[in-house]
Amino acid sequence: MKPNPISPTIPLDQDGVHHGFLKLPYSRDDSAWGSVMIPLTVIQNGTGKTALLTGANHGDEYEGPVALQELAYTTRAEDVTGRLIIVPYFNTPAFQAATRTSPIDRGNLNRAFPGRADGTVTEKIADYFQRILLPMADVAVDFHSGGKTLDFVPFAAAHILEDKVMQDACYAAMRAFNAPYSVQLLEIDSDGMYDTAVEEMGKVLVTTELGGGGSASARSNAIAKKGLRNVLIHFGILQGDMQIDPTVSLGMPDGDCFVFSEGDGLFEVMRDLGDPVQAGEVVARIWPRDRTGQAPVDYRARRSGILISRHFPGLIKVGDCVAVIGAVEG
Ligand SMILES: [Zn+2]
Fold first, then answer.
1. 58 CA to middle of ligand 1, Å?
2. Distance 293 CA to ligand 1 centre (A)
3. How far is the C-alpha of 233 from the C-alpha of 176, rounded, in Å?
4. In this structure, what are the phi and psi dihedrals at residue 72, rounded to the nearest 5 degrees?
5. What pLDDT, in 10s, does the model give residues 38-68?
6. pLDDT band at 330 (very low <50, low <70, confident <90, very high)
7. Alpha carbon distance 126, 230 (integer Å)
């Protein structure tokens, strides 16, 4: 197998705090021998578990980058037992362009796994995590939000897995993250996801959806920071007491949780995030974008539960996700 072209500018396995980059050669018009420089901090102290911490897997999601920048800046080696590998801007080209996918190759990093050492820039990043960084990790925390086109109630999530021992470990880590909502997540499109790569390697995964709309709030950033610290305490990497607050447990048992648009137009949301909804209730409607005097098209919840996600922009297109309903458990 071809070696991956990425090289770290700092040691990955030495005690202390090291700030540097993952350097990915990228020859282009404005820089013949240029590189994509992915910011990286490694903090190690003795032996213990390794946490691989990533934000901006999608470049327009900001709670993870904020929480991880602070963690990298404030954590001292003596605070750690084991190792933190901190990558606040997982898809750095996308992050720097404030877009979901990479402006270099349009790569969606969360659909690029396991990646290719001789592929596109995005595939090379995926391959480096798949073959070099993930094997070092015991737990991976990958922060997401809705980006520019979706908004979410703040939740930590874990997937339903065939390996129930692994599933229990992931659920325990999700509960340690302790976001206001905890969701057993059904993926509609799991091929190529980082989540799938982590789980197939037998590593604990915690993922989140903490907000959206292409920005972050003081509240959503605080949820990210608290959850991150809690998870690191749960794995014995940081010391201290976990801060545990009430959480609402939700499930996504089937595709009826999702409502999709079948037309273009002016988006009118009829329920807000966190609102309870009944099956058959109108959660949104779409008005014509080019005329008056026509009825809107109603979009109804296909199951009862809580509105956990919604389309964010004021205009909507055919095929867009209108809303997601989470099922209340127990
Ligand atoms: Zn995302």
1. 5
2. 38
3. 9
4. -65, -35
5. 999 999 999 999 999 999 999 999 999 999 9
6. low
7. 27
Angle, CA of 106, 110 and 113, to the nearest 5°: 100
The CA 266 to ligand 1 mean position distance, Å, reads 25
- pTM value? 0.97
Q: How far is the CA of 305 from the centre of ligand 1 (A)?
A: 23
Nearest to 306, CA basis, from 330, 285, 323: 323
The three-state secondary structure class of 102 is coil
Do 173 and 158 form a contact (C-beta atoms < 8 A)? yes
Q: Which residue has the tokens 């737990």?
A: 139
CA of 45 to the centre of ligand 1 (A): 31
For 240, the token pair is 């201290």
pLDDT at 256: 93
CATH class of 7-251: alpha beta
The answer to whether 209 and 145 are in contact (CB under 8 A) is: yes
DSSP-assigned letter for residue 186: P
Distance 207 CA to ligand 1 centre (A): 9
Specify the 3-state DSSP secondary structure of 178: coil
Q: Which residues surround ligand 1, an ion (CB under 5 A)?
A: 58, 61, 144
Q: How far is the CA of 56 from the centre of ligand 1 (A)?
A: 7
Establish whether domains 7-251 and 255-328 are of one fold: no
pLDDT score recorded for residue 185: 81
- 255-328 is classed in which CATH architecture? Beta Barrel (2.40)
Backbone angles phi and psi of 193, in degrees to 5: -75, 145
Cβ atoms of 307 and 275 within 8 Å: the answer is yes
Q: How far is the CA of 147 from the centre of ligand 1 (A)?
A: 7
- What is the arithmetic mean of pLDDT over 304-315? 98
Q: In the chain, where are the structural domains located?
A: 7-251, 255-328
What's the pLDDT score for residue 298? Answer: 98
What tokens does 150 get? 């979706």
End-to-end CA distance of the chain: 48
pLDDT tens-digit readout, 212-254: 999 999 999 999 999 999 999 999 999 999 999 999 999 998 8
